[in-house]
Design a protein that fits this description.
By secondary structure, this protein is α+β, with helices and mostly antiparallel strands. The protein folds into 3 domains: 31 residues; 80 residues, no CATH class; 81 residues, no CATH class. The protein has 4 helices and 6 strands, in the order αββααββββα.
Length: 212
């Protein structure tokens, strides 16, 4: 096999992977391409190849939230200081304080609907960020101690599924916490309901971390 043939083979694999990724997103609620403000693109409201937000990474194109939240344990916290970076990106739409079409340096006017708006009061949601450092030394009887690192794993069926804990900088100390992407995959990989990382049949996803 010559170099040209090898190169074309690599291109074919990349193209198929890209088509698969697009198909996953295109069948999800994160496909905004039918809305006029999206300029007909799927990726652009969140990502850009140029002039991205270098502080957050991921070639990020969307405005970030600076909201203050009522945290799960009753205290208050900001997205910048108390919540991991990926969750902050999610909350840039899902807390309802930043418009969906606030991207590329523009200030939008189209806000998320009630079905996806969790608001800034997180007391009735699963704890994230500073309220969900894992493992919690005070709850060793109810949390799975075999999943302490950046990824907890649980065998589901014939394969091992991963639930990702998120790194969070606590005054210079990196701790691992639950975040939005612990349970959800924003690109709809797997095509499970609610964009879950894997099926929660028989509470399999919950039981990755919780002993019940």
């Amino acid at each position: 096999m010559n170099a040209r043939t090898q190169f074309l083979g690599v291109l074919a694999v990349v193209a198929m992977a890209g088509a698969s990724a697009q198909a996953q997103i295109s069948t999800s609620r994160h496909n905004f391409s039918t809305y006029g403000w999206s300029r007909g693109e799927i990726c652009l409201p969140c990502h850009t190849p140029h002039n991205s937000n270098v502080d957050i990474g991921f070639l990020w194109n969307h405005a970030l939230t600076n909201a203050t939240y009522q945290m799960f344990e009753g205290g208050t916290g900001t997205a910048e200081l108390n919540i991991d970076s990926r969750s902050r990106m999610c909350l840039g739409c899902h807390d309802g304080t930043v418009a969906l079409d606030s991207f590329g340096g523009m200030t939008g006017t189209n806000f998320i609907g009630p079905g996806g708006n969790i608001g800034t009061d997180l007391r009735n949601d699963h704890p994230i960020g500073s309220d969900s450092v894992y493992p919690d030394a005070g709850r060793t009887g109810s949390l799975n101690p075999s999943a302490p690192g950046p990824y907890g794993t649980r065998t589901v069926g014939t394969g091992t599924q991963k639930v990702g804990l998120r790194p969070w900088n606590d005054n210079g100390t990196v701790k691992y916490t639950v975040g939005c992407t612990t349970c959800h995959t924003v690109h709809n990989a797997g095509n499970y309901g609610h964009m879950l990382r894997f099926s929660n049949a028989s509470s399999a996803l919950c039981l990755t971390c919780h002993i019940k």
